Amino acid sequence: MKLGLQIADFTWPGGPAQLGPTLATIARTADDAGFDSIGVMDHFFQIGRVGPPEHEMLEAYTTLGFLAAHTKRAKLMTFVTGVHYRHPGILAKIVTTLDVLSGGRAWLGIGAGWNEEESLGLGVPFPPLKERFEMLEETLEICLQMWSGDDKPFNGKHYQLDRPLNSPQSLSRPHPGILIGGSGEQKTLRLVARFADACNLWPTPEIPRKLEILREHCKAVGRDYDAILKTSMFSFDVGEKGEKVDELVGRLHWLAGMGIQTVIGSVKDVSHIKPLEILGERVVPAIANLEPQASRA
Q1: What is the pTM of this model?
Q2: Is the domain defined by 2-82+105-118+177-287 classed in CATH 3.40.50.2300?
Q3: 6 with 40: CB under 8 angstroms?
């Protein structure tokens, strides 16, 4: 099992003037600690489960570029981009740029989006969910076409691109990894089976059933189910002095028992740095050889 870090909260001591230095320290520490990936939410306002909308929130892809400069090995991605925030041709260029400048470490994390408040607040069109799923499917098609080097016109219901040229091309081959967030059984997981290299599920007892549905979607489209990385969101709390490490490791065993291979989580008091160090020293080694239990065939 591997761990990924999600940085979801930027309301730290020192205010905006210390955001850059603190974030750089977090990134370097996580990279050295053995986190497999480092990412941020693609939001413009803080979300309700973390804090009020007025709390600090950094634009995702600018932040990932900053993280690329302060790390050497961890994958970099959003958890996850709202499909309606950026035109797909531009999104493919953004992820390609991150991939090239990071030495091939970019992933595209993407989903249908949900935060109407920030979209309306900043004047971003917020189509109905059905349309956003249609946009998501076309966006995935466009990104894969651009990463394949095919620049023939794309004519879809929502997007028309006369020449989807992508130069320079991504270093990751055949393309940057694609993670689709969400656990919707009829739309999201079907898109995972068709397009994604990884799924991302909430940490509930429903995971085995969701993975069985994904397996069925893979059978329907002739996709290798085992080729898709199974990830879950989580929250890492090791306590002030590591007193909760054993409890956390137990929870990670629970997720592995349901078939999860990578756990992506926010870290309580991440700006204090010590929790990241404890995770690297005690948790990463403890779960390194933890083999996820495959869902039944």
Answers
A1: 0.94
A2: no
A3: yes
